[in-house]
Design brief:
With 506 residues, this protein is α/β, with parallel strands linked by helices. It has two domains: 241 residues, Nucleotidyltransferase, domain 5 (2-Layer Sandwich), CATH 3.30.420; 216 residues, ATPase, nucleotide binding domain (Nucleotidyltransferase, domain 5, 2-Layer Sandwich). The chain is 39% helix and 23% strand. It has 18 helices and 24 strands. A hairpin with a 3-residue loop joins strand 1 and strand 2. The longest helix has 25 residues. The N and C termini lie far apart (59 Å).
């Protein structure tokens, strides 16, 4: 039997989903893990964590669905971007993975900006500025601060590259993932030699760049045995998690728009050709269909709500541990009892800096306007409203670029909250759509895997037959003045506090 596995490697959790050739979900497992923050702006995780979470997820699925020796599996990865893994010539990981939201490489990013200029960086890579979270500054930081690691690194890999290597022994990446590395030319579709020379690495130290939905190789026997897979497994190139999620939500055409709130709040707007923002605020990324692109931005999103859950919602988590329901659902119910606008409470959710269209690596979280009458539920709602305002900032920037958004689709963990979906619809004066497909990023990866191995004629054909609308959330016009007022305050706070953020970072 032909089976498909979509592996979604997120910032704080890994999901494994098993599908049949029709896209029917046969089993899914979520494995959470914790990030390490040894000092301010440092965010790391042991790379082996991803592999062990993959194994644990497969074990959980196999308890409910038997994978047989005569089955055939096609597998692709939906991966977080910008997380850097260093391995030596024997494939040994040399240090902990530097997670995408890590902002340690401030000086290195500044050095790149001074050498190349943001304008040139944007024209070559599609990224609007040199930020410490990109892999290129991270590599230069390793060179400057961990010279032994740098000298012994045979390959600098991103998460998808690393897992493909673990499974097949081959080094492959793809455009949607590597385009935010700051060392890949997005229109020429090749590595940027001048940047490689600047950071002091060779092209041979990076993975070969292929299109998405291309066979990378058959899974090694030793990897199959370690993972407990009894059958042939073909590993293919996948996509950046937001791209895979867009595919899994049916967002593959110009004029569509998807937003995802997981660990990151991300937006994805496909375009048929490269579109550069004249204001140089909106990044251009590569998409999972050959020679297509997308306007894509992200910032810390669901991570803010998870932080709030972990730090302030012990009761809700205790109830969840006892089988009394999901803690996030409990938080959403509390939020629903608070009036829109949070009685004047506004939050800036930039716990790990801010990205497009308001780029500032030094930005931090801010609560503004709280008083004696505000409760924990107010603060939770303010988080949800703040992410809706970031969504609004992105939609506004797209409009300024002449890109018309005709339909907004919501996916990710945040889309499971009806109250949050309604907040996003109201705060943006839009109709927001969710889809029936569960685990959109995993499904998108599975579609790419199936396309690569001939299970599907094309990505477009798979999407047309498998993706259906679930719910629609319509804006309530009477709430527009409330959200407009808080949105204006959100924008003013970010602008007025910029100097404070920068001063605090010194």
């Amino acid at each position: 039997m032909q089976l498909l596995i979509g592996l979604d490697v997120g910032t704080t959790a890994l999901k494994v989903a098993l599908f049949d050739a029709h896209g029917t979900l046969l089993g899914v497992s979520t494995q959470e893990y914790s990030l390490q923050t040894p000092q301010v702006n440092f965010v790391e995780v042991d790379a082996e964590t991803y592999w062990e979470a993959f194994k644990a997820g497969l074990d959980e699925i196999k308890e409910k669905y038997e994978i047989k020796a005569d089955d055939e599996i096609s597998l692709a990865i939906s991966a977080q971007g910008e997380t850097l893994i260093c391995i030596d010539k024997n494939g040994k990981v040399l240090r902990k993975a530097i997670v995408w939201m890590d902002n340690r490489a401030v000086d290195e990013a500044k050095a790149m900006a001074e050498h190349f200029g943001n304008e040139q960086g944007y024209k070559v890579t599609g990224q609007v500025s040199f930020e410490p979270c990109w892999p290129a500054p991270k590599i230069l930081w390793i060179k400057n601060h961990e010279p032994e690691v740098f000298a012994n690194t045979d390959r600098f890999l991103l998460v998808e590259d690393y897992l493909i290597y673990r499974m097949t022994g081959y080094f492959y990446t793809e455009g949607s993932l590597v385009c935010s590395s700051m060392y890949w030319d997005i229109t020429k579709k090749c590595y940027w030699k001048e940047m490689l020379d600047f950071i002091g690495i060779r092209e041979s130290q990076l993975a070969e760049v292929a299109e998405s939905a291309v066979v990378a190789g058959e899974m090694l026997d030793e990897a199959r045995e370690d993972l407990g897979l009894p059958c042939k497994v073909t590993v293919t190139t996948g996509a950046l998690d937001q791209v895979a999620g867009a595919i899994g939500a049916g967002n593959i055409k110009e004029g569509m728009f998807s937003e995802t709130i997981g660990a990151a709040l991300a937006i994805c707007a496909p375009v048929s050709k490269p579109v550069f923002d004249p204001n140089q605020k909106m990044p251009l990324h590569y998409f999972a269909l050959p020679d297509t692109y997308m306007i894509h931005t992200f910032t810390t999103g669901g991570m803010t709500l998870r932080w709030f859950r972990d730090k302030f919602c012990s009761n809700e988590m205790a109830v969840e541990a006892l089988g009394g329901g999901d803690a996030y659902d409990a938080i959403s119910k509390e939020v629903a009892e608070v009036a829109p606008g949070c009685d004047g409470l506004v939050m800036l959710p930039h716990l790990s800096g801010s990205l497009a269209p308001d780029v500032n690596a030094n930005a931090k979280g801010v609560w503004f306007g709280f008083s004696l009458n505000h409760t924990k539920a107010h603060f939770a709602r303010a988080i949800m409203e703040s992410l809706a305002f970031i969504l609004r900032r992105n939609l506004s920037a797209l409009k300024d670029m002449g890109i018309t958004v005709k339909e907004v689709r919501s996916l990710g963990g945040g889309s499971k909250s009806k109250v949050w979906n309604q907040i996003k619809a109201d705060a943006n004066d839009i109709t927001l759509v969710t889809v029936k497909s569960k685990e959109a990023a995993c499904l998108g990866a599975a579609i790419l895997a199936g396309t690569a191995t001939g299970v599907f004629k094309s990505v477009e054909d798979a999407v047309a037959n498998m993706i259906q609308v679930k719910d629609e959330y319509h804006a309530q016009p009477e709430l527009k003045p409330v959200y407009d007022k808080n949105y204006e305050m959100y924008c003013k706070l970010f602008k007025d506090l910029t100097e404070c953020f920068d001063e605090n970072a010194k």
